[in-house]
Specification:
By secondary structure, the protein is an all-alpha fold. The protein is 41% helix and 2% strand. This is Peptidoglycan binding-like domain-containing protein.
Length: 167
C-alpha cells in the first residue's frame, strides 16, 4: 500500500491526520477524507481524498512516500528521471528493475520499492534527511507487518502497519 484512503488504519494514517490537524486516531474516516480534499483543493492537487506520493510531498510527509509498481504521478516521473530511464510517470516493470539495480549497486535492500531510503540516496527530495528516513522505518511495538508478507511494503516500513477497517 502506498496510498492512504478512507477505510484504512495505521501509523501512516495517524501521521497524515496530525499534519492535516484532525483528530489523530489512526482511522481514515470521513473527517480525514474531508480535510484531505480541502488540502488538495487548496494546493492544486487532484481532489480525490486519496493521499499518494504527490500529496505526501506537498504535505511535507516525505517519510510516507513509497513508490512501487502501479504508482503514478510527478514523484514517479522524478524517480525515473533520476534513474536515467524514460520518464512517463508510471511505475511499471521497467522502473522496478531500474530501482532494484540502483539499490543493489548502492548498498540498499534491492526490493524494487522506492521508499525514503532509496529516494534519499538518489537525492530526489532535499527534504529526505537521515532523520526523515528513520521516521519511515518500523519501530518496535508499531504493530504487525502483515502487508510486507503480501508484497505490499518493505519489511522495515511503517506501511506494514496499514490495515483496512471497513468492509
Amino acid at each position: 500500500m502506498s496510498i492512504l484512503k478512507k477505510g484504512l488504519a495505521g501509523a501512516p494514517v495517524k501521521i497524515l491526520q496530525e499534519k492535516l490537524g484532525v483528530p489523530a486516531d489512526g482511522q481514515f474516516g470521513p473527517k480525514t477524507e474531508e480535510a484531505l480534499k480541502a488540502y488538495q483543493k487548496e494546493h492544486g492537487l487532484s481532489v480525490d481524498g486519496i493521499a499518494g506520493p504527490d500529496t505526501f510531498a506537498a504535505l511535507g510527509l516525505y517519510e510516507l512516500i513509497l513508490l512501487k509498481v502501479g504508482t503514478s504521478g510527478e514523484s514517479v516521473k522524478k524517480l525515473q528521471t533520476a534513474l536515467g530511464i524514460a520518464a512517463d510517470g508510471k511505475f511499471g516493470a521497467g522502473t522496478a528493475k531500474a530501482v532494484k539495480d540502483y539499490q543493489a549497486a548502492n548498498g540498499l535492500d534491492a526490493d524494487g520499492f522506492a521508499g525514503p531510503a532509496t529516494l534519499a540516496k538518489l537525492a530526489l527530495f532535499k527534504e529526505l534527511t537521515p532523520d526523515v528516513v528513520s521516521k519511515a522505518e518500523l519501530t518496535p511495538g508499531s504493530g504487525p507487518v502483515e502487508a510486507s508478507a503480501a508484497g505490499e511494503a518493505p519489511a522495515k516500513s511503517i506501511w506494514g502497519t496499514i490495515k483496512g477497517f471497513f468492509s
